[in-house]
Specification:
Length: 263
């Protein structure tokens, strides 16, 4: 009769199998504390961001695409964003293929292609949150980083989350941050939140698991101000000399990714 293995021997065997197959064995209580800790830190960040009436940031962003040949290509841009709650936005994005500005004064939003000297406008009375919903629903403008600045940040970020982890600490541009990781069915996303009295997002990464090659979108916030003076006319678009007004469908080549690249 074959002797029964001791519990310690079985434990060692399980540990070896887990190591070989890349498994992480986490007790249920520890997993629950990970989940609660990550959500608590995310809620702290969200409440702080939502409480700021005037925000001005400088950012870098990277977006990856997968070509028909399954090659991963990354496109980089930089820009600035200024908001005044509840209904004013001025943003800019400059990349290798487009130089774009966006204005919203609470009544009208404008896309301006500086490299084209052309702009398109639409009436849209409402809040920043309502504007983001409309841009995504009607104009298919995703603006993934916009979720970090909505008035209901936590609710938007946490919906559909099936797993949450507090990874630990990380350093972004010399600033110590809490590193949080979350999972949805189709997307994994991470956020690094500044440690201390100002829990702002410093880095945000979205991984599209359902797309071959798992391309990522990365946003890095380099500068964040909440006390900068805001000019009264900063959010109203004034057409430069010679600028042409066009329909939105005519405002081509303003995306972060150049035309012709397979996503």
């Amino acid at each position: 009769m074959k002797p029964v293995a001791s519990r310690s021997a079985i434990g060692r065997q399980i540990a070896v199998i887990a190591l070989l197959f890349g498994m992480t064995l986490i007790p249920a209580a520890h997993a629950q504390s990970q989940d609660d800790g990550a959500k608590k830190l995310l809620k702290t960040m969200s409440d702080y961001v939502a409480s700021q009436k005037n925000i001005s940031i400088v950012y870098d962003s990277d977006i990856e695409v997968i070509t028909a040949e399954l090659q991963k290509i990354q496109f980089a841009s930089s820009g600035q964003l200024q908001i005044s709650r509840p209904d004013k936005v001025h943003a800019s994005r400059t990349g290798g293929y487009a130089d774009v500005e966006f204005y919203f004064d609470g009544k009208t939003f404008t896309f301006y292609g500086k490299h084209l000297n052309a702009f398109a406008q639409s009436q849209s009375v409402g809040s920043i949150d309502q504007l983001v919903d409309r841009l995504r629903g009607e104009y298919f403008v995703e603006a993934p980083g916009a979720d970090l600045l909505l008035s209901n940040v936590y609710d938007k970020l946490i919906e559909d989350v099936i797993d949450a982890k507090h990874i630990g600490l990380g350093v972004i541009d010399g600033v110590e941050c809490e590193h949080l990781a979350f999972r949805n069915l189709d997307v994994d996303w991470q956020v690094w939140v500044e440690v201390g009295a100002r829990p702002i997002p410093r880095k945000y990464v979205i991984t599209s698991k359902a797309v071959t090659g798992a391309p990522q979108y990365t946003l890095r916030i380099k500068d964040w101000k909440t006390d900068a003076a805001t000019a009264a006319d900063a959010f109203a678009f004034k057409p430069p000399a010679g600028a042409k007004k066009v329909e939105f469908k005519e405002l081509a080549n303003v995306d972060e990714v150049p035309a012709g690249v397979v996503r």
